[in-house]
Amino acid sequence: MSTVVLLLFTGVGLGAIYFLVASGLSLIYGLMHVLNFAHGVFLSLGAFLGFEVASRLGATTWTGFAASLLVGALAGALFAALTERLLVQRLYERHIEQVLVTVGLGLAAVALFDGIWGTDPRFITGPAWMGRTTSVLGANVPNDRFVAILVAGLVLLGMVLFLRRTRYGMIIRAGVENRAMVTALGIDVRTAFTLVFTIGGIAAGLGGVLASHYFGYVSPLLGQTLLIFAFIVTVIGGLGSLTGAAIASVVVALLQQFANYYLWGTGDLAVVVLLAVVLLTRPSGLMGRRA
Amino acid sequence: MTSTAPSADPRAATPPTADPVLRVRDLRAHVAGQQVVEHVDLDVAPVGVTALLGRNGVGKTSTIKAVLGLVGRSGTVELDGTDLVDLPTHLVVRRGVGYVPEDREVFAGLTVTENLRLAERRGSEHRYDLVYDLFPELEQRGTQAAGTLSGGQQQMVSLARALLNENRVLLVDEPTKGLAPRLVQEVSRVLARAAQVAPILLVEQNLQVVRDLADHAVVLTDGRSVHHGPAADLLADEELTQRLLGVHADSGPDAAGRRPADEEGPA
Q1: Which of A112, A166, A209, B81 has the most CB within a 10 Å radius?
Q2: CA separation for the pair A260, A28 (Å, rounded)
Q3: Is residue A256 part of a domain?
Q4: What structural domains and CATH numbers belong to chain B?
Q5: How many CB pairs under 8 A join A and B?
């Protein structure tokens, strides 16, 4: 029982991190039809800058941790907005070129991070409470899982409120359905493009800081490794669907955890099999609009 | 208003020139590298309805989309004397172009109210009085997702989005397509009222609607405008309608040979 509970919390915690990456990917693809292969870089940058700030302010203090989340989110937002404005927007509707430029940016940024922080992982320390465990139904659950779940939950809530309650949110929802018609109502949809990249960057930056605590380290490849699973989550959830991304994040992470424990470490394989099954039976994903 | 008589050589046909609101010359449009509009000249008079007619697939919808900049285009598209051909779609629309697309294109996941709020343009009055007067049902169904509306109701949303703002011209693409006869009459009545507010360029297969509403007619054949003149004269000339539109002018509301779909149920 305690093993199942531990796997549940660890899985949902990992799902929270997947969601922070996948939500942005899904919104960006849904609105702009851009597969952003540089998205993992937003995460790594957030993690590294968060790590730098936390170590200067005191990595074991809550102030340091809060500052690392803030800086991670800002770094992700800024880098994402610049990526959209300077690179992606210039290649409007040229999808192959957009893929090439984001792949190139991903490679270049990883090389840059190698140069600055080295290829070896930097080990992360946080507030003492986050390194301890809490007993839930007999299972000792690491506290950083709770933090990841809480932050991802707040990000999901914030995104839903933004999409439901604001005019820009309305433009993004409409644009995911039918971008041409949005422009035909006199709306400059490019502002919405920059906005979804920025929102995706915030979530990925937060995800970077949380992932570095979850895994205990940050390395230049952290983001791009998580990106692979985030893409799978996005496809399973349905490209463009935030709810789909949330559900699929948890499903994929739980499957991965349980398969790793009970099926001899075959978690990654199980995820790929799930992807294949979903693509064969529901090609538009769990919550995708079009078949 | 002067207008040229239908010419024996279609290519010699030229539109009337009496200070049109919308003046289109030598419009060409391409979609995915393929030329879909070859050479279209047309004028939309400052008042009334100008019908854009032609057989299926001659480029009527593409012409409308090219005016808006929704497809690649070249030529001249002047609104009140200013050329808009180099402007992106949203700036064309902000100059005062209302658009009711073929197949309605309401945002299915947004509520009726959200569809209308999205259409609100800055710098324009928002005429909810007019819209809710024409379509009282939309006020009652404000919180309903537009995707759950019937085809006729979705057409109301689409028309309402265009009528909400002050426009210089309305581009309305097959508004009665797939609607039951009762709803065709309803849409026709709304368009007559809308035409009092702004001139309309109307793509319409239902010749009875054209007869009721249109003052002028432009006919396309293979991506080219081949006829300009009073709509009544065109429809009175059986040989000409047969040749240009492929239908008898006196045929019923279902002139294009389509059956009106049931108006109930989402489209």
Answers
A1: A209
A2: 31
A3: no
A4: 15-96+169-176+198-249 (3.40.50.300)
A5: 54
Q: Do A185 and B105 touch (CB under 8 A)?
A: no
Mean pLDDT of A124-141: 85
For residue A163, tell me if it sits in a domain: yes
| Interchain proximity A174–B89, CB inside 8 Å | no
A241 → chain B, closest CA residue: B109
Confidence band (pLDDT; 50, 70, 90) for A130?
Answer: confident
Look at the alpha carbons of A78, A13, A32, B94 in this order and tell me if their dihedral is positive or negative.
Answer: negative
Q: Mean pLDDT across the stretch A58-74?
A: 91
CA distance A129 to A61: 10
pLDDT (tens digit, 9 = 90+) per residue, B130-142? Answer: 999 999 999 999 9
Is A8 an 8 Å CB contact of chain B?
A: no
The candidate with the shortest Cα–Cα distance to A122, out of A197, A217, A36, is A217
pLDDT for the residue A260: 87
Cβ-based neighbours of A57, under 8 Å, separated by 6 or more: A63, A64, A67
For A49, the domain range is 2-222
Closest Cβ opposite residue B121 in set A178, A181, A186 = A186
The domain tally of chain A equals 1
Half-sphere exposure in the Cβ direction for B161 (13 Å, CA): 30
Tell whether A179 lies on the interface with B, counting CB pairs under 8 A: no
Q: B68: nearest CA in chain A?
A: A184
State the pTM of this model: 0.83
**Residue A170 touches partner B, C-beta closer than 8 Å:** yes
Residue B70, min C-alpha distance to chain A (Å)? 7
Instruction: Convert the pLDDT of each residue in B183-226 to its tens digit.
Output: 999 999 999 999 998 999 999 999 999 999 999 999 999 999 99
Would A51 be classed as within a structural domain? yes
Instruction: Flag residues of chain B having pLDDT under 70.
Output: 1-18, 248-267
For residue A29, being part of any structural domain is answered with yes
